[in-house]
Amino acid sequence: MKMTLALLSVSDKTGLLDFARGLAALGVKLLSTGGTARLLREAGFAVIEIGDYTGFPEMLDGRVKTLHPKVHGGILARRDLPAHLATLKTHDIPTIDLVCVNLYPFKATVARPGVTLAEAIENIDIGGPAMVRSAAKNFTGVAIVTDPSDYAKVLEEMKANDGALNLATRFDLARKAFTHTARYDGMIANWLTGEPEGVEAAPENSAPVPSPFPERLHLAFDRVEILRYGENPHQEAAFYRETEPPPGSIATYRQSQGRELSYNNIADADAAWECVKTFPTPACVIVKHANPCGVAIAAGLLEAYEKAFQTDSVSAFGGILAFNGEVDTDVVDAMSTRKHFVEVLIAPAFTEAARSLLAAKQNLRVLEILLAHDRHTLELKRVGGGLLAQTPDDFDVKPENLKVVTQKAPTPAQLEDLRFAWRVAKFVKSNAIVFCGNGMTLGVGAGQMSRVDSTRIASAKAKNAGLSLAGSVVASDAFFPFRDGVDVLAEAGAAAVIQPGGSVRDEEVIAAANEHGLAMVFTGARHFRH
Prior knowledge:
Blueprint: E1 5-10, H1 16-25, E2 29-32, H2 34-42, E3 47-49, H3 50-54, H4 69-76, H5 82-90, E4 98-102, H6 106-111, H7 117-122, H8 127-137, E5 143-145, H9 151-160, H10 167-193, E6 221-227, E7 237-242, E8 254-257, H11 263-276, E9 283-288, E10 291-297, H12 301-311, H13 313-316, E11 319-323, E12 326-327, H14 329-337, E13 342-347, E14 349-350, H15 352-358, E15 365-368, E16 379-383, E17 386-390, E18 403-404, H16 412-425, E19 433-437, E20 440-445, H17 451-464, E21 473-476, H18 484-492, E22 496-499, H19 506-516, E23 519-522
Parallel strand pairs: 1-2, 1-4, 2-3, 4-5, 11-13, 12-14, 13-15, 21-22, 22-23
Antiparallel strand pairs: 6-7, 8-15, 9-10, 9-11, 16-17, 18-23, 19-20, 19-21
């Protein structure tokens, strides 16, 4: 069915004039509202103003424009029902064949500092979603376009089909439209149900700061791909991305080579990337089963890699490798020399020469991600019948915030290693114990039910790797409940410890540190990771 009348009413005017030009060239008349109509008229288009079309002016400061039977009748009438068409004829309502609408910028409005509740309310679109839903419901006879990125392909198909769009295209546009309005309403509901109590007393002047935890949480994700399977081959899986993922997050990766990513690849790559981003100097992180098994910083990436690999070369096999700088041929050659099999290699950039060498490793998945530090507003975890939500763990203790609790204070060099170890411990599953020295991990104990067992495992890892713990430092993600963990790490050769403190047995633990001649500092905050 050839389209003859299109209604255009958009807040985002990107590409609008080109779209209107294409429609007009196909003989489609243009019906429009407010600012959209003004823009089209100034550009020289013949456009019918909505008020002239309905016989009613826009009113109530623009709150009522398109909520009229002549608009919705023309959109909703079924073209295959003679009774519907007869009703339109009786009331002199033409059919509207294409609706191009996108909605008031509510998200941009509420993102402004100091926005008032009244301003937010005025940017809740009413007529727009009504038209979108009407057109989407009647997709068998109407095309609904909500995304400027669809303008070109809509025009291309219309040109190829004598001004018509096929049913499959209209159905796809309708599905996209319902998603558009659902997310718009979800965004508004999230913001309003996150409002603190009492704002209704003075909505004109209130500038509330919404809670990060709305009473009704609506989430929006787009499916990126169906994965081969989940954590195990008998589980089905898919990868979804936020509609606007934070810059520098794993969801923004660009894969330049290798096989498709698996469920476990993505989960482990996220752990490696989030860890390596926290270091301001050249760093390398190797992750296996969601835990760092080797982390190091150095003057350059090659040295950082060599140090990280040395921590636990056995666990590094088949792991995820992440760098926070441009990878060159020296790093790739070092991987090859060690016959280091890696599932995924991540970096913000690769030299062209490095790419050429990596191309020979056809199964290696190579990801590029912008080195940015934006974080998710909320971290989410599914549980049976529910969802846990929390703000990200962004705590990074500064030297001036550390509290020395022992008779001996750490040296400046030890203090640097303690802060390094503390950063690593944040990404190790609890209970976490991390031995470090000279900007590298020496032994990592992860995920044990007992902290003293994590300490023993970390010490044994270092021994197995042939690394000395004499003079090393240790980070514990939470407090030591008993002195036994301190006894074990002192016996292994540690010289300084960083931990949150806060145990009822802190005095006993501090006394043990003094007995062993250890320096111990408290951070006042823990880094549980479950």
